[in-house]
Amino acid sequence: MTEIPADHDSAPEGPDGRQTKLVDVRESIRYRRRAQQAEERCQALEAELDTLRQGHSGESEQTRAALADERTRREALEQQLVTLDAERRLERELIRAGARDPETAMLVARQRLAARGDPADVDAEGLAREVLEEKPYLRTAVRDEVPPLGRSARGAQAPAAGRRHRAEKLATVARASGRRADIVEYMRARRQG
User: Fold this and answer.
1) Geometric angle at alpha carbon 172, from 168 and 177, rounded to 5°
2) 111-134, pLDDT tens digit by residue?
3) Residues pairing with 19 in the sheet
4) Are 94 and 131 in contact (CB under 8 A)?
5) From residue 142, how far is each of 71, 87, 96 by CA, in Å?
C-alpha cells in the first residue's frame, strides 16, 4: 500500500474537492489486466457480431430473392387461373351457342382471346357468337342447356337381352371351371354385350 505522507493526516483531495481513495499497487495491476481482457473480449465479440451480420445479410438477400421468385410464380399462376376460367366460360358459351366441334371452335376462340389482352374482361358469350358467325361450318342448332363436359352425349346403353343372357351363362361356366379359356370367353362376351 502506498503510504500517506506524514505531514498529511488524511488522503489528498482531488480537483473536485473529494478525497481520493488509495489502492494497493497489486490490486491496481489486477484491475488494469482485467480491463485489458475485457476490452479484448469486447473486440472479439464485436468482430463476431460483424461476421454474423454479414452472414445474415447474405441469408436475407437469398430470402428476398426466393420471396421475389415466389411472388413472380404466384402472379403467373394467378394469371393462368384467370385464363383457364375465361376459357372454361368460353367453352360453355360455345357449346350453348351450338358449336358442332367445340374443340376446333375453342382453338379459334383462344386465338381471339389472346389477341384481346386481359381474359378476365372478355365477354364470353359475345366472343362465342362472333366465332360461330365468322365460321358457320362450326355451328349446329342452338342449345338451351349445356350437357356435362367430359361425359358421353349418348348416355349409358343397356345391353341386349340375348347378349346379357349369354354373358351370364359364360360367367357361370367360367366360375365353375376356373379355366383361363372360359374366363377369356366370358370377358369377350361381356365387352360385346
Assistant:
1) 145
2) 888 887 777 777 888 888 888 888
3) 13
4) yes
5) 43, 20, 6
Q: Which SS3 state, helix, strand or coil, does residue 122 take?
A: coil
Reading the block at residue 26, the C-alpha cell is 497489486
Amino acid of residue 134: E
- On the 0-12 / 13-18 / 19+ scale of CB atoms within 10 A, 35 is exposed
Helix (H, G, I), strand (E, B) or coil at 183: helix
Q: Which one, of 36, 65, 143, 155, lies nearest residue 98 by Cα? A: 143
Decide: 109 and 123 in contact? Cβ < 8 Å: no
Residue 158 DSSP code: P
- Report the alpha-carbon distance of residue 95 to residue 128 in Å, rounded: 9
pTM of this prediction exceeds 0.70:
no
Closest C-alpha among 29, 6, 11 to residue 21: 11
Give the pLDDT of residue 109. Answer: 87
Say whether 19 sits in a helix, a strand or coil.
strand
Cα of 120 vs its chain's centroid, Å: 21
How many Cβ atoms from other residues are within 10 Å of residue 130's Cβ? 15
Q: Is 15 helix (H, G, I), strand (E, B) or coil?
A: coil
d(CA 113, CA 123): 10
